Each structure stands twice: as C-alpha cells, then as structure tokens.
Protein: L-rhamnose isomerase / sugar isomerase
Organism: Algoriphagus halophilus
Amino acid sequence: MKLSLEQLQEYNQSLFSSHQEEFGFLANQLSKEGNDVNGLVEKIKAFQIAVPSWALGAGGTRFGRFGIGGEPRDLEEKLEDIGLLKALTQKTDSVSLHIPWDIPSDYASIQSKAESLGISFDAMNSNTFQDYGQPHSYKLGSLGNAKKSVRDQAVAHNVEVIEIGKKLGSKGLTVWLADGSNFPGQASLRNSLHWTQESLSEIYQAMPEDWKLLVEYKPYEPNFYHTIIPDWGTSSLLCKSVGDRAKVLVDLGHHLPNTNIEQIVATLVYQDMLAGFHFNDSKYGDDDLTTGSIKPYQLFLIFCELISGSEDGAQAWESISWMIDASHNTKDPLEDLMQALEMISISFTKALLVNREKLTACQMEGDVVGAQECLQEAFQRDVRPLVKEARIQLGGAADPIGHYRKMDVRKKLIQERGAESRSTGL
Ligand code: LRH
Ligand code: MN
Ligand code: MN
C-alpha cells in the first residue's frame, strides 16, 4: 500500500499551528543561548538510520509467536514497509538485508522497487547460526568450527552474501557469530579463536576495496558457556588482525547488565575502530526492545561520545553505520520502528545541545556538579519540536504514528496480505 501525499499534507496542516507555536518557542530559546537552530535542523535531517529486513514482522520468543497480520511476505513487500516508514518519518532511507532470509529472486525488480521508494542497501548480514539445508550443520559452530569443511562452507556463504550485496550496491558485510560452546571442555577456547581469525581473514580478502566488515560481539546466547567473540575487545583484536576496513559493531543488547556502553563507544572511537550500531534496548539481555524505551539516558550518553569523538577528529561521523536491530513480540512492528527512529533522533538532538566547552571546563576544573548539570541541561530538554520540524521540512508526517493509525495502515496491510502472512526473520 502507498500513503496519499495529499492526505499526509492535510493531516500536517491540522497540526501545523500548534507545532509552529512549540517550535517557535524552542527555537527562540535555543537561539538566545547561542545555538544555530537552522544548523541543528539540517543535522537532524541528514541523520538517517537503516531498518533491518527482519524486524518488519512479529518476532516472538522461543515460547511462542503472535502474528500481527499483514506482515510482508517477500523482499518487495519488506521494501514497501520501509517505504511507508520513510514517507512517515523521513528518518530511514536504507535497508539491511539478512541472507538467506532475503535472497532476491529478481535483482532488476528489487532494484527498481528500491529506487522508486528512495531506499538503498545498507550492510548485508550473513547467517551461519541456523541450518537451512546446507551440507554441513552449524550446530557446533561455523567460522570457528573444529572441522575445516564446516569453516570453508561458512566462509563460502559469507562470500556469496558479498556477491549478492555487490549486485545491490551495498558497501558492507556484518558478521555475527553464534559460535561458542555450551559446556567446559566442549571446544578449545584458543583454537576456536584462531580458526575464527583465519575465516574472517578469508572473508575480508573477498570484500571489494570500498567495503567494510562489521564484526558484532555478544557475551552469550545461543551458546551459554563461551562465545568466541564475546566482547568489543575480542572483536577489535580480530578486526585489527584482518585489515583496517574491519571494525567493531556495537549492538546495544549484546552486553552484560550494567555494562558502561558509552565507555566502550568512547574507547572504540578513540581508536577509529567503531563500525556502527545495532540500536535496540534491553532490561536483561539481548531483549531487542524498542530503542530508548528502557535506558534513554544511556542512549543520550552514547551520542555525546559519538559527537565529541567526531568533533575532536577521533573518528569521522560519516564512517559510522546506523542500524536498528529489534524484535517485536507485542507491538505492531511498524509502530515500534517509528518509536525507535524517534527516540534515536531525540537522543542525537539532545546530545547536539550539550555545551561541550562548558563541560570540558568543568572536567578540567574538577567541577563534578557542574559537569552533571551540563549534561542534564541538554538531556532534560524537550527537543521534540526540533525533530518534528526536521521531519516536516523533509515532507514527513508531523505525527507519524498518529497518521499511520488515522490511515488504518495495518488494517489495509492485513486486507492486502492476509491475517496469517508471516515475514522471514527472527
Ligand atoms: C544476534 C543479532 C545479529 C543477527 C540478528 C538477527 O543476536 O543481533 O545482529 O544478525 O540478531
Ligand atoms: Mn545485532
Ligand atoms: Mn542480538
């Protein structure tokens, strides 16, 4: 389904005067404080986040899955859903594909569909954590498996994903390894790391020169004793050993509780080793909840590190990839993604407002209270009118979820695709 532009504009018109009032008030305040409001709006407009193809349907848990209805049945319909998100939020213009869930059956038609919707192909994701009819099983690992034949097969799969990505114009490969062991003694900790390094190196060699390798880490699940790449340090070590276009991908859910993720981000940025993000939120583990729904302050602090890192010349903003990686059990996935895109934009905007000169002065003088006040001043501010203004200027909806509901989009998708339609993915 496609949204009518006239209806969207009509809807925006009905909200326009209250937005004008709110935006005018905030813009005035910010200008008085010495901020360049137009500059801020332009930065918000330019910040775009990729949506994962696997987050457009109901994910469920291992205990059950409750279909949402109207889920995209193939890659074209996934692109259509991202097109809807783009039209409403103007916050996403690319998709991150997962192979084999999204193997295009017809490249020309996928490309023309993507083009017509203004969507490009972000980093590709390989999958060696499931069996899908290939000769060797990944039950006991893939790139770090003790058997060379299994490792070769897993490397070949990644090379195939690169080939698919090349045809679509992608510029990156994300590797997440489920490899590890469930019990002490099951695997050689050192050898499995070494084999993983060798396999990653082969994959790296198969990448075009203008591609980057994004290497995820995760402390546990699906293996519960040891994971070969459990943390950013191991990921960084492997990346450094394979080549300078290999960098560490931070998935916010892939940390033990209470980990200081902003510090990890700062350390990676310090070394120019941050590949990008998988945004989500978590209370306990890899919960894949809506970004910013549980720990909005953490998200803000992460953006503070990213902005200061790029302004200080540690790592260029443009070198970082931005992606969501979420799973939906109870919410309509499209509504959930709209909430995530909004929360990411809000956190980014708040971090832009931090008075960095003042903060640095407080740090240098040992003014602990002053430093905290500095962060709180930006974090506590309601920046939604700024984010809304950026969205309206790009032609998006003043209130994306409001318009989505008013237009009965899910109901129409169910009519079009059926109540039982099921999307591929987790
Ligand atoms: C692993 C992970 C990884 C996968 C995705 C489906 O937990 O975060 O990024 O590719 O989930
Ligand atoms: Mn992830
Ligand atoms: Mn995950």
User: Anything to note?
Assistant: Residues 5-417 form a domain with the TIM Barrel fold (CATH 3.20.20.150). The two ends are 24 Å apart (CA to CA). The first helix runs from residue 5 to 32. The chain has a mean pLDDT of 97.
